[in-house]
Amino acid sequence: MGLSDVNLETHFKEFDRKSMQRNVVSMFDDLLKIIESDEYDSHLRQCLEKASPGYLIHIAKRKKDILKSDHGIVIAVETSAGKSTLVNKILGIRVFKGRNMESTSTICKIRNSDKVIIKTELDNGEIDVKDMSNIDVKTKEGEKILRETLKNFTDMTIAKGSEKYKSVDVGLPVSFLKGNTILVDTPGIGGSETVSHKMKEYLPNAVSFIFVINVASAGGMQRDRLPEILKSIIDLQMDDEMPCFDPRSVIFVTNKWDSIIRDPDDSSEEDEVKNTWKQVTDSINECWPLVRNENIFKMNLTQVNKEENSKLEFNKFRKVLEMVVKENENIRIREHLRYLCTLLDDVCTGVRTRQELINRSREEQERKAKEHRMKIYELNSKCEKV
Q1: What pTM was computed for the model?
Q2: Domains of the chain by start residue, with CATH
Q3: Separation CA 302–CA 310 (nearest Å)
Q4: β-bridge partners, 340
Q5: Which long-range contacts (CB under 8 A, 24 or more apart) does 239-242 make?
Q6: What contacts 263, CB < 8 A, 6 or more positions away?
Q7: Would you state the pLDDT for residue 186?
Q8: Identity of the highest mean pLDDT range in 42-46, 67-71, 148-152, 260-264
Q9: 199, 190 contact by CB (below 8 A)
Q10: Which residue of 178, 203, 264, 275 lies most exposed, with the fewest beta carbons within 10 A?
């Protein structure tokens, strides 16, 4: 398959996806027409409200949600927890340079693309596209060119004014990112108010999360930072602002365990690791009760290519991530169709119940009429005898 064939195939997939989105929205609109019609009276609407509370609000939110183009798996971390290192390991190339201070200034979306493209969007809505298909990111030189280019848009320690960018969209050959699922690199939790706001603003677009925790920093769970973000997500879900988000798919990567183990032969340090691991996992379970134990990882991200244990743990993480990506492919269309089917069942149940009552009334009338006919017959018979 040539490059033009790949582009054509991608174009048709995008066309199919948008067509399906429009069809689902159209089905919601058709159902609303039925519900709001004179035939579907106020009593039936009251019954539907009891079966599906707030259905009008939910329909409006879901019509808006399904038109979101991306299924974002958001990577959220506290500052200096190792986010850049994790993203680089996932992609297999060194796209971002890790720093020991707050550096990421904007939302960076990474998606699968047959060629390298950088699309930037300013806070004022202005969009610019930079075609970098002439570089080979599999080479050190291509890697460096891409990294240096991205710094100008995302790194506030290098480029003044990078905070003015609302988002940076990076297209790369990342085959495991299926459909329109993307990785979203966000500013660090606990950074400046401006960049933290960008991250919080993007939360409703997410279908899953990867939280990176620095165990060297007070056990990794700063009470006023990561738990606050977790609570924000729960609040959004309670308000039905994230209808396609499954809290069981969240991944926690605990990083920098090498900062605790300095001497492998020191038994006291082994105890410290056990105690810290228990403290971290207990805190995660307290803040996120639906977490799966197999979705909590203990890693030294800088040692993935050097230590066998770190490599094995990262490979386990990678498999779970790929599973999450697969589960979320076209999740919005599937989830909103499921809700539509449930709502349609409730509408049909109300109509069927009404029909049964009408039929029951007819049966009752026929029974009474039959009784009256029998009485009339009996009276006629008596009259004839008299």
Answers
A1: 0.80
A2: 69-330 (3.40.50.300)
A3: 9
A4: none
A5: 240/54, 240/57, 240/58, 240/61, 241/61, 241/204, 242/203, 242/204, 242/206
A6: 269
A7: 83
A8: 42-46
A9: no
A10: 264
